[in-house]
Write a structure and sequence with these properties.
The chain is α/β, with parallel strands linked by helices. It is 42% helix and 13% strand.
Length: 356
Amino acid sequence: MLQNINYKLNNGVRAIRRWVIPYLNSLIHPDELRPVLCYLYTEWRCNIDCHYCHQYDNTQDGMDIDTAKSAIDWLKSTGCRVVPIMGGEPLLRKDFTLEVIRYGTENGFFVYLPTNGYLMDRAFIDEMGKAGVAAVNLAVDTIAPKKGLPKALLNIEPQFRYLVEKQKKYGYLLFFNINICRNNIKDVKLLTEIAHQNNIGTDYHLNEPPQDFVDVEHYKHKDDGLFIIPDKYEEVDELLDWLIERQKRGWPMVNSIEHLMTFKSRMRGTIEPWDCRAGINGALIRPDGSLSPCFDLICYDHDWGTIWQPRFDREKLSEVKRQCMPYCSSTCFHTMAYYYRLRSVPQWVRKHIRVG
């Protein structure tokens, strides 16, 4: 009981320091680049091949530790305090990832780790816990592997169980990251129920094809990306209604209800313009230290600057967003946009008090 209370209190304090204060500072300085969250894309390579993913490339090298530390130093100077360590698969280099977690934590960052879990083991989970990892974003799309979807819970069951077991000891948050595709709709429900049974959160993405103006020549599955097709619309609608109902019951989900509803119009190509904060209150750092506004534009050919010398020109950002926004329902940036409407902030506070 005491461990659970301490866990919730520590997460509450961390949320205020790492999320709320940078958020408030960004409101005070609206004309400056003030990332509340910035992806540290440390690894192009991946150990598996999900057919929807065009954001890994096994021919390229990853980030070196000097660039990673310099990136964290730069982000600290901007007021940012949240860094996800992204790939590819970050655990292809476990020692490197642990060093980044330690350096980020020592500098006051909320460091979270998205991973497919395959390369995790008990020793690494203990080491990342001791290093101070704040959250683990465990990417799972199915219960058992399916064609094009190797991120299956059964393949990482021991890792998942140990992550749940050690969550309170080390103080990290754990949640499932689930990509809704045309062949895993029933699995999404089952994974959501498993998450609820284990008192962890969920985070949903709608499988979106790469946009035509982004260079993804390395992408091998353009014709088999498992993107949502019209004969699946009604089944996805039913799933989204089911998720929304569970969220209303208090099941912890990163996505707002508005965002889940947006998925319905997004898959039909009728999404309304929304207040994307990419390049303003969020960004991505590539392995070489260059910048991108967001994860989806990581392969877009434009010079957005580098760490310490950003070039997020608002006019150019608006031009690019006019091209990509009709085809994008980014979970990170749509959620960010939702909470930059001040009337939504009390909902964020209530949700996090309720789920701890």
